[in-house]
C-alpha cells in the first residue's frame, strides 16, 4: 500500500497528459473495429483516462499496432474475417493524436496478428494466426506495402490439443543481431526460425520443436546489460506458452549463419504461489524498456477480486493477472510479483518509457486500465485510471512516445 501511494504521489507531480492508441475488435453486432486515441492525465490520488477520437478505417478486426515505421505513422493489421480481405494499413498521426488512413494493402492470407519491421524498416514480416502463414512485404516510400514472399503452412502437422487444429503463427520477433526473425506457432508447437538477407528476403531454417500441446504464443529476446559484455553478451529468448501457461527460457546460439535454441528454464505464468486455474490462457510477454524486468499476462482465469469501476457499486469484480519476473545474466527468470490486470482477458499491455506506468487492455471487460509501476522494483502498484466501455474489445496498446 505504501509503495502504491508513493508511486501515485510521484506521478501527480512529475508528469503531464500523454496519449495512447488502442486497437479494438468490432463490438458484437458490428462489422467495424476501431483504433482509439486515448489521453491519460495524472492527478493527485490517481488520474483520468478518456477517449479523444476513434478511427474506424482499419477494418473489422484491428489487432496489432506498430510505430516502428516512423514518420508519424502507425501500421495496423486487420484480421479481415468480416471483410473482403485481411489488410495492412498505414494510419497518419495528426497533431491532435487522431488518425487518418493513408494506405491499405490487401494481404494474401487472413488473420494477421503481429508485425515485425526489419532491415532499417525496409520490410515487414507478418504473422498470420488464422491464415496459418507468414507474409514478407516491402515497405514502399509512401507507406504502402508490396508482397515479397509468402510462406503457407496449411496442412502441416499440428499439436494434440483442440486449439491446434491448424498451424497458428502468432508472433514475429527480430533477434538482437537483426539477422533472424522467430515466429511462435501455437498450432504446430514450433518456434519457426528465418534468416534475413540484404535484399530483405527470408530463408526458412530448422524450427525449434516445443513439448506437445504447449502452444507457443508470443516471445521476447533479451540480453543482459549488467556488465560490459561488448559483442559477446549472451542472448536469450523468453516464450509464453498459451496452452500450458508456462514461461520458457531459451539460450540462443549462433553458428554458421543459423540460430538455434536450448531450453534452460520453465515455470508457471502464475508464479510459485498460485495454482494454474483450469481454462487459463497465456497472453502477452514483453521486456521492460529499461531491460530489467519481464511481464506476462494471463487470460481467461481470474485469480483476483478488485474494486468495482462503478463507484456506486461496492461489489468487487473478477480480475485476470499479470506476472512480473526478473531475468538474471544466465537467462533464468525469478519471480517478482503476481498482480491484477484490473479486468478480464488482458490480451495486451504496454509499459511506458519511464517505467512508471503500465497500460492494460482487458479484452472481455471492454476496458483499459492504467496502473502505477515502480521502475526500480518492477512491481505493479495501484490502479490509477480506467476507461470502461471503450469501443469494441481492446487487443493492443501503444504509448505516444515517439
UniProtKB/TrEMBL annotation:
UniProt xrefs under InterPro entries: Cycloisomerase_2, Lactonase_7-beta_prop, N2O_reductase_N, WD40/YVTN_repeat-like_dom_sf
Keywords: Signal
Pfam families to which the protein is assigned, alphabetical: Lactonase
GO molecular function: 6-phosphogluconolactonase activity
Signal peptide interval: 1-17
Similarity-based family: Belongs to the cycloisomerase 2 family.
Protein name, per record: YkgB protein
